[in-house]
Write a structure and sequence with these properties.
Helices cover 56% and strands 13% of the residues. It is of the alpha/beta class and 429 residues long. The protein folds into 3 domains: 11-178, no CATH class; 209-256, no CATH class; 260-426, von Willebrand factor, type A domain (Rossmann fold, 3-Layer(aba) Sandwich). The strands form 2 sheets. A 6-stranded mixed sheet has the order 5-4-3-6-7-8, with helices on both faces. A two-stranded antiparallel ribbon has the order 1-2. The longest helix has 32 residues, at 123-154.
Length: 429
C-alpha cells in the first residue's frame, strides 16, 4: 500500500506530532477550515522536516500526495531551512513553532497567487513556492524561537528549572499569529536580551573595587606580593604548593565601591498615538529586555504605560513573571496625548514607598510642557531619594525640558538593535 506521508517517520516522530497537534489551537482551526487529508498530511510532513534529525522522502506515495513532496523538496533545499533546523531538531515545541510559521506563510502566499487548489499547480511552481516560503519565513522562525527562549528565561530564577510547557509555548505562538505587534516584539526580544547581557558583562569588568581586608585562601588572582616571592626559589615553591593545597595563601578581599543595595528599575513608556507602530515595538522590546538585567541584579521592575495620564502600572519580579503577563504588556496600547508630570510623579511615589535608590527610564517621542515648579521639585527629590532619570527620545529631537531634568539622555535615530546598545550603556547598572 502506498504512503500518504511523503516524509519517512517512526513511532517517536508520530508521537511528537500528536503532542503538537493536540496543543496547537491554530493548527486545529486550520484543519477544520480546509477539512482535507492533503492539507493534514502537508502539516504533518512539514513538522517532520523540522523535527527529524535525518529527513528522507518515501519512494512510493499515493499520487495526489506527491504535491506535498514538491512543496517540501523546495523548502528543504534552502540555507534558511538549514539555519532554522539547528533550533528545531528533536524539539517538539520549536518544530511546532516552525511548522506554524511556515504553514501560515505558505497559505498566505498561495492566496496571494489566487490559487484555490494545490492540484492545479505544476510541480515546478509548487517547488518554487515552497522554496520562496522558507526563504521569507526562515529568519523569522529563528527570531521567534530565540524570543520565546528569552521569555522563558525572564520567568525563571537562578537555579530554577521551570520551563514553558509545550501547551504554553503553542498558546503563545497562536497569539503571535493573531497579533503582528506581539510577533515583532518577540522577534526582537531574543536579540536584545543577548545584547543586554553582553553590555552588562562588559560593565562588570570595569566595576570599581577596593581592598576591603586580607584573608587566607588560594585565589591566585588576588595574591599578596609577599606570596608571589615563593616562585623565586625551588624550596620556597614547594612551600607555596603546600599553602595552596591547604588554602592558606594570603589574598586580598575586595568589595565594590558601588552600593550593592539597589532599588527598582522604573520604566515609563509613552503610549501616545505617535508611538504606534515601529516605535512602539522597539520601545517595548528594549523595556522588556531589561528584565534580564534586573534579574541578574536582583532588582524589580515597574512598567508604567502613559499617554496624557498614567494608564497602567505593573510590578515585575524577574524570575516569577509568567508568559501571559509578558503577552499582556506587549499587547498594551492606549493612543492619547502626552504628559510627563503624572508618570514621573507615579515613579517618585514608588521610590518613596520602596525606600531605595532607583533608576527611572523614560522612553518617548513626544513633547509636553513641564512646569518649572515641578522641575525644581523633581531635582530636589532626586538628591533626597538618590535616584536617576535616563531619557530616550525615539526618532525625535530631545526637548529642553526633559534634558534639564535628565541625568543622561540619548536620541535614537534608527529603530535597530545596535541603537539599543546606547540604552544599556547609558544606564548605570
Amino acid at each position: 500500500m502506498n504512503n500518504k506521508n511523503v516524509i519517512k517517520f517512526d513511532a517517536y516522530d508520530k508521537k511528537a506530532f500528536e503532542v503538537f497537534l493536540k496543543n496547537s489551537q491554530y493548527i486545529q482551526k486550520l484543519l477544520r477550515h480546509y477539512s482535507s487529508e492533503l492539507h493534514e498530511k502537508l502539516i504533518e510532513d512539514t513538522f517532520y522536516t523540522f523535527f527529524k534529525y535525518v529527513v528522507e522522502f518515501n519512494d512510493f506515495v499515493e499520487e495526489k500526495f506527491n504535491i506535498n513532496k514538491y512543496i517540501l523538496k523546495g523548502a528543504i533545499s534552502s540555507i534558511e531551512y538549514e539555519k532554522s533546523k539547528l533550533l528545531t531538531e528533536l524539539n517538539i515545541a520549536n518544530s511546532g513553532t516552525a511548522t506554524i510559521l511556515f504553514i501560515d506563510k505558505f497559505f498566505k502566499n498561495l492566496n496571494r497567487l489566487n490559487k484555490t487548489s494545490l492540484s492545479k499547480i505544476s510541480p515546478e511552481e509548487l517547488e518554487k513556492l515552497g522554496n520562496e516560503t522558507i526563504k521569507e519565513v526562515g529568519n523569522e522562525i529563528v527570531e521567534v524561537i530565540e524570543g520565546l527562549e528569552a521569555i522563558k528565561e525572564f520567568g525563571r530564577g537562578k537555579g530554577d528549572k521551570k520551563y514553558l510547557s509545550v501547551e504554553e509555548k503553542f498558546n503563545l505562538v497562536d497569539e503571535i499569529i493573531k497579533n503582528k505587534v506581539l510577533k515583532e516584539i518577540i522577534k526582537k526580544l531574543g536579540r536584545l536580551r543577548k545584547l543586554a547581557i553582553s553590555e552588562y558583562k562588559n560593565k562588570l569588568q570595569y566595576n570599581p573595587e577596593e581592598v576591603y581586608s586580607i584573608k587566607v585562601g588560594r585565589n591566585l588572582k588576588y595574591l599578596l606580593p609577599k606570596e608571589i616571592t615563593y616562585f623565586s626559589d625551588e624550596i620556597l615553591y614547594l612551600e607555596f604548593l603546600r599553602k595552596f593545597y591547604e588554602r592558606k595563601l594570603l589574598n586580598y578581599e575586595l568589595k565594590s565601591r558601588e552600593n550593592n543595595e539597589k532599588g527598582p528599575i522604573i520604566i515609563l513608556i509613552d503610549h501616545s498615538g505617535s508611538m504606534y507602530g515601529e516605535r512602539e515595538i522597539w520601545s517595548k522590546a528594549v523595556a522588556l529586555s531589561l528584565i534580564e538585567i534586573a534579574k541578574r541584579e536582583k532588582r524589580e521592575i515597574y512598567y508604567i504605560a502613559f499617554d496624557d495620564g498614567v494608564r497602567y502600572v505593573k510590578k515585575i519580579t524577574p524570575g516569577k513573571i509568567s508568559y501571559k503577563e509578558l503577552v499582556g504588556l506587549a499587547s498594551l496600547y492606549f493612543g492619547g496625548g502626552t504628559d510627563f508630570v503624572e508618570p514621573l510623579n507615579k515613579a517618585v511615589e514608588i521610590i518613596m514607598r520602596e525606600n531605595k535608590s532607583a533608576d527611572i527610564l523614560l522612553i518617548t517621542d513626544g513633547y509636553a510642557k513641564v512646569p518649572k515648579s515641578f522641575i525644581d521639585k523633581l531635582e530636589k527629590l532626586k538628591r533626597e531619594l538618590n535616584f536617576k532619570l535616563y531619557s530616550i527620545f525615539v526618532e525625535t529631537y530631545p526637548t529642553e525640558t526633559i534634558i534639564s531634568i535628565s541625568d543622561s539622555y540619548i536620541k535614537v535615530k534608527d529603530l535597530v538593535d545596535e541603537e539599543a546598545k546606547k540604552v544599556y550603556k547609558m544606564i548605570k547598572f
